[in-house]
Amino acid sequence: MAAIWIALAAGARRFIPAPMEPRRNPPIWVFLLLAALAAAPFVVEPLRREWTSDGYPLEIQMVCALRNVGLGLAACAGWLLCLRLASVVSLFLILFAAAMTNHSAVMVVLGLYTATGSIWLMLMYWAGLRSVLVAPGKALAIQVQAGSERAPWIGLGILVLLLSGSVALAVIGPKRATYALGELLPTSSGTGEMDPFARYGIGDGPEETAGENARSAGMVETDRMIEDNKNSLIDAVNDLYGPPHKPPKDQERMVAAGKADVIQFHGKLPDNRRPSRDFDTSRKGPNRDRKPSSQGARGLFEVQGRTPLHIRFVVYESYDSASKQWIESRRPGPKLIEPEGDDWMRPGHLKEVAWYRRDERHRFKVADLKSKLVPTPAMTVRFRIHKVNRPDYYEWDYDGVLVLAGRKTTPPGVVVTTDCRTVDPSQLPDSAFGRPILSGGSPPILGEVPAELRPELERLAKAWAGGRQRGWPEIEAVLTQLRTTYTLDRTAEVPPDHPAPVLWFLSESRRGPDYLFATAAALLLRTLDYPTRVCLGYYAAPEAYDAETGHTPVKSSDLHFWPEVRLSDSHWLVVEPTPGYEVLGPGLSLWEHVLSTFMASADWAWRHVGELIILFGLSIVVWHRRRDWIDALSVQLWAWFPGQTWRDQVRRAIGLLERRGRWTGRPRPLRQTAPAWLRSTQAMPSSMNRDLDQLAELAEWASYAPDAKGPWPDAEVLALCHRVVQNWSWKHWRQTPPYPTLGV
Hints:
Layout: H1 2-13, H2 28-52, H3 58-75, H4 80-100, H5 104-134, H6 153-172, H7 174-182, H8 233-241, E1 254-255, E2 258-259, E3 279-280, E4 301-304, E5 309-320, E6 325-328, E7 337-341, E8 344-347, E9 360-366, E10 380-385, E11 394-398, E12 401-404, E13 415-420, H9 454-465, H10 472-485, E14 487-488, H11 501-509, E15 511-512, H12 514-527, E16 532-540, E17 552-554, E18 559-566, E19 572-574, H13 590-607, H14 609-624, H15 626-640, H16 646-663, H17 674-679, H18 686-704, H19 714-727, H20 730-735
Parallel strand pairs: 14-15
Antiparallel strand pairs: 1-2, 3-6, 4-9, 4-17, 5-6, 5-16, 7-8, 8-10, 9-13, 10-13, 11-12, 16-18, 18-19
């Protein structure tokens, strides 16, 4: 970018005329150009943030403005003042760059700048010395006319400002003035403005938790970690989905060896105790008059990166039809986590296959997470927490669910950076979809379907699959049927006496919450021999994206259930049967982005072909009649504002005629005067020729006569201009053939 800016400045230098007297002050257009260059970064910055969701801090914007001014001064270096100011600006910029970073490349640039500046100063000295030797007796004569002295208003104004500032500083105090002036800059908040792209500042960013101990919502990596106790997951689940139906009091729980002893526990349940994570699919539904969510925190964590995104929390593998519950997965065996350097960690069990697309990077800022979860998306291939650089700091709570080892909660303020694989499911080969895993001599763990549910589920699955090829076409058919013919209803309640909530959902109500969609999809896919599980976690929705901060907040109300299909490389493919939820699409290259945009545009154009045809027709009409409308508007503006003097009225009338001549192919030649061009028309009616001759005479008076009263009264001049403009209309110019030119 620096090379491009320098090349543009060097190219502009070739079009700027060299001044005859370099020591004189530049003309006014140079100062206007410099002002426009200085304002450009502040004008472009809102557009940049709107289009790219990225931006520069205010101090960088100011440096960019100074850089533009320096390049403009260099382009106008023919004036000695611009040349000297350009050198001063370049000195400040190189010092700023050297102070901002300790990169070795900056030292190389600094050395080159020092050498170049030394040579330039030496050449400037010899050039100045030569000019003195060539004209040694030349002196500047200053003529001061009587009464021409002017008071130095600029200097007096600066002096008044300095004195006022000094008095204000003495009255307010330096500390208070520092904070007041500092908060005029939107660094990273405080009690004044806030800029989400600032690097640091007086405050600590937008508050995630109300009170004195505010937590930053920005993506700031810090060594400070806040530890506190949080509520258990069961509380958040019950708030969102409602409590499960309680079994009758006289119902006895049976086990193979006889009755099981039930211990009544009347105290508070321990936080996140593992038995509380089993999920009952027969629930009463959420409370209708539930109190509104707390406004203290914007979310449990925030995501920077492309969404939608699924973040696992709990994994379920077995479905118990008797208790109507999903049983959580067992803790996986020890899996290797390999360090990569620079605090990056990589799961060691991953395989390299060719069907994945470009990896996607996300950053998760923990704000108020209620567990020791390390937020990671599906198909994570590596992750990083600043200065948490040992594999034994992490452990796997479930297959694909990463947590901090030996902690109760993930501290607020932690930033987790992840790289995850992306895939286009329609491009997966048949070999990508494995079979359910056998555990010794037991039935397939990820293919278990209760015997009493299997006949009805198999019938539906085969009917929906419709003989499609095994793999994604078969899975997509089941998902499409659920997404299109069933309705998401979070308030739907499963009858407490119904033996199978999933069959009630599939065959009777055809509406229900997301956990019934996930349950139905998982069991249906298992009957088709796909290893499937159900996950509970958080869904980062694209609709929740905050363009101002560039992050997507994830709240406790974003808890969501979804099924996953195991691939042959041990990754889990997220699938979405629930209407309104989507899956992260594949990462695309630049060419694929262009092609995708073109295809989306073509699809949109096909769906709005009628409107586009009408718009195209209107555009043709507008383009064909554009000069008629522009001419009518110009004539009307001239009629409203003909000019303050008779000279202005004549010049503006001739300007209208010249534009009409250019549009009809008979422009005024470059070396021909306006009066001669007006007299060069022939074959015109006598009255129109007489008006034209009179206008040509007035044009000569306006151009060459002394600045005095015109030959005619002002009212007659304006009336003549009106007659000529009306008679020599745009329609007349188009219908009359070209006239011969009489010459200069």
